[in-house]
Amino acid sequence: MKNLSFSMQKGESISIQGASGCGKSTLLHLIGALDKPDKGEIILNYDNQVLKINELTNLQSDQFRQKDVGMIFQKFNLIDCLSVRDNIYLPAKINKANQQSIDHTYIHSLVESLGISKHVDKLPNQLSGGEQQRVAIARALSHKPKLLLADEPTGNLDEENSDKVSKLLVDTCRTHNTLLIMVTHSQQVAQLTERRLRISQGNIVESDNVEVK
Ligand SMILES: Nc1ncnc2c1ncn2[C@@H]1O[C@H](COP(=O)(O)OP(=O)(O)OP(=O)(O)O)[C@@H](O)[C@H]1O
Ligand SMILES: [Mg+2]
């Protein structure tokens, strides 16, 4: 990918589609300061600040990742030795150390809406793939991030759950004015976001303007 650039309005949701291997996960990891580019620059203009992701010190990128970003990984990345509850509370607890209070009522409602209440005392590997995916979603939202990066958040869910969970994601982001960047292979899920982008030949384009192959 080269000279890739896009902008979003406050509270906006976008979906990103593109062929397998075109770099969607890599793009999310770069935006979230979870990865660094081999060359070039990643510049994020947001909240009246300009972040040059590849020039952030460890402390700055840790703070950005922990406080401002929520990440739903394609492969979940739940912590196996922590209970589902502790996984979900992890970002909220880390931010408590940064003086941000934990909203237990909100987290409880997330857990309820995602249908995972009965699993909170279990370990992640005692859950099915789809249940783990929903835990990963609750974890990514528990600290009310400013930017939610969701990598195939419904990839392991059946149609009914996919529909429910993707609507919950979009609605929760709207309620909290969270920017949502969601990678999805599902046309139906992509329709829920305000804009649809597509990575095509190393560039990013509004997909409503291009022919979908
Ligand atoms: N850690 C890595 N080091 C080097 N190359 C990588 C690494 N991770 C992925 N790649 C390569 O970078 C390219 C983009 O991978 P990426 O995972 O971003 O694709 P993707 O669009 O998310 O695909 P999918 O839809 O299958 O999830 C692929 O060609 C992949 O083989
Ligand atoms: Mg991917």
Automatic annotation (TrEMBL):
MF terms (GO), sorted A to Z: ATP binding
UniProt keyword terms in alphabetical order: ATP-binding, Nucleotide-binding, Transport
SUPFAM superfamilies per the UniProt record, alphabetical: P-loop containing nucleoside triphosphate hydrolases
Top-level taxon of the source organism: Bacteria
Xref: InterPro entries: AAA+_ATPase (IPR003593), ABC_transporter-like_ATP-bd (IPR003439), ABC_transporter-like_CS (IPR017871), MacB-like_ATP-bd (IPR017911), P-loop_NTPase (IPR027417)
Limits of the ABC transporter domain: 1-212
Keyword Transport among UniProt keywords: yes
Keyword Mitochondrion appears in the UniProt entry: no
One Pfam match: ABC_tran
Family: Belongs to the ABC transporter superfamily.
Name assigned to this protein: ABC transporter ATP-binding protein
